[in-house]
Every structure is written in structure tokens, then in C-alpha cells.
Design brief:
about 270 residues; 3-stranded antiparallel sheet; about 30% helix; about 20% strand
Length: about 270
């Protein structure tokens, strides 16, 4: 139902999600389970723009394993996903949320982020609780990572699946205040935003800035957003190429490449 129900409901609202895979359970693999997504399902969701990511080959508690088995649990799953969709996962999610400093370091290597917190999203939470959690995240300006194992079966599944759609509708109503994206995109954006060096120099009727970012551009390649406050007439360019500017209230916004060259902002 991740493929047949969850992904289509996200797509219907213009969103994409992150699907964490235990590849040993996929039909055709050693511990296959018939109700799991197939590799054809995984490829279809990947082509549709969803993130296919690593939840461990066999859903084992990494802190309980010797070093060699920890490496195998992580890398074997990476390899299986890469072999089937041609993309190596750049995020990781710990089985049972079990981690320690060593496994956190191993799972983080070569990735934009690992999932270390989330909100359980299922039958054990009331509609009021789910909405209150989202409202709190908006109020506090914090990220909310929503997680469910399955809609119709599995741990904490929904007895009434319409509650899943209903909550997505509630999120959609607040889209002017939030950004809904895959875990990969959010993790990369946050790391870039917190690491970029950008010192704007304001001159008469223009701002000049040259971004500098030491993160690997092969992993961290999300555009960042610049805000120009109190100005309704703005033109922006980077490396001589014009950038699309949009306005909200008295502020102007545009996306730029943090690995790119000089940004020029002209305003009146």
C-alpha cells in the first residue's frame, strides 16, 4: 500500500515522499514477503520522483552487531537499491531507531543525512494530536518528520485509511507556511543553509554577493533561497543568468546555486 495508496496520495497534492527499504524482504530476495513492494514498484516510485532510501538490509539493530555485520547491513542494502534503480541512497534510517556513536558515524558516511527523530503517524495518534504536532512545528519553526510503516497493515496501521488522506488535506491547507519535501532534499537544504558563507555587499540600488560552500556538490546540490526585505521591485542574476523572483508581502525571494558564482540583485 506504500506504492498503491501512499505514493499516489502524495502525488495528488504535488508532493513526493521518502520510502525506506529493507531489501531482503522484497519479493525475489532471500526473506521475501508477498505483501511488500516489488522491485518494479520501487522503480516506478523512483521514476515518479520519490526518494528510495536505506533502512537496513534485514532490519537489524545495528548497535547489537559486530562491526563487519553493521557494514554489511548498510552496504548490502545500498548495493541492492543501486542495482535496481541506478541511484545510491544518500540518506539512512535506523531500524528500531537503534543507534550509537559508531553506527551513526558509519551510516552517515557519504550521505546528506540520517533520520534520528520522527513523529509516528498512525492509529495510535488521534486526528487532533496529529494536527497539534504540525501546528507546533509551524509555530516553533521546526522540521517535522512524519513516519508510517503502512496504511492498511503493519505496526500502527490505520483502521480507517481515510484519516491518512484527511491529514494530508490539513497539511495542504497550510502550504503557504511550510515546505513539504523528501528527507533527502530537506537534509541537504539544511546542511547547505547552515554551512554556506554569504556576505552581501550593498551598494546604491544593488547587492553583490559571492556564495562559498565547502560541502560536496555531488551530494549537496539543493538551491538555496535568498530574501530581500522591504522591496517590491527586484531583479536578480547569478553568473550573468537571470533568476526568477517572487514576492510575498514586502519581501522578494529567489533561489540561487550555493556552489555558483557572483549574485547580483538590483532593486528600486
Amino acid at each position: 500500500d506504500n506504492c498503491t495508496m501512499a505514493a499516489p496520495e502524495l502525488e495528488k497534492r504535488g508532493w513526493r515522499g521518502t520510502f525506506w527499504l529493507n531489501c531482503s524482504r522484497i519479493p525475489g530476495e532471500p526473506k521475501q514477503q508477498s505483501h511488500r513492494v516489488t522491485w518494479d514498484d520501487v522503480r516506478a516510485m523512483h521514476v515518479a520522483g520519490h526518494e528510495m532510501s536505506n533502512h537496513g538490509w534485514d532490519h537489524k539493530r545495528l548497535p547489537d552487531l559486530p562491526y563487519e555485520e553493521v557494514v554489511e547491513e548498510i552496504e548490502k542494502n545500498d548495493s541492492a537499491i543501486f542495482a535496481n534503480i541506478g541511484v545510491r541512497p544518500v540518506t539512512y534510517c535506523f531500524a528500531y531507531n537503534a543507534m550509537n556513536d559508531e553506527t551513526l558515524a558509519l551510516a552517515s558516511k557519504g550521505r546528506v543525512g540520517v533520520r534520528t527523530r520522527q513523529y509516528a503517524f498512525g492509529e495510535q495518534s488521534s486526528d487532533a494530536q496529529l494536527r497539534a504536532r504540525m501546528d507546533k512545528s509551524i509555530l516553533e519553526g521546526d522540521w517535522a518528520v512524519w513516519m508510517t510503516h503502512g496504511l492498511t497493515r503493519g505496526y500502527d496501521h490505520f483502521r480507517d485509511v481515510s484519516r491518512f488522506s484527511s491529514f494530508l488535506d490539513y497539511v495542504k491547507q497550510h502550504e503557504d507556511k511550510i515546505w513539504v519535501a523528501t528527507f533527502k532534499d530537506v537534509a541537504a537544504y539544511v546542511a547547505e543553509r547552515d554551512s554556506v558563507v554569504l556576505t552581501p555587499i550593498q551598494k546604491k540600488h544593488k547587492i553583490v554577493a559571492c556564495p562559498s560552500l565547502s560541502l560536496d556538490p555531488g551530494l549537496f546540490n539543493m538551491p538555496l533561497t535568498m530574501r530581500v526585505e522591504g522591496c517590491r521591485k527586484v531583479r536578480a542574476s547569478q553568473d550573468g543568468k537571470r533568476l526568477d523572483v517572487y514576492f510575498k508581502g514586502d519581501n522578494a525571494y529567489f533561489e540561487f546555486n550555493p556552489h555558483g558564482g557572483k549574485i547580483l540583485v538590483r532593486f528600486k
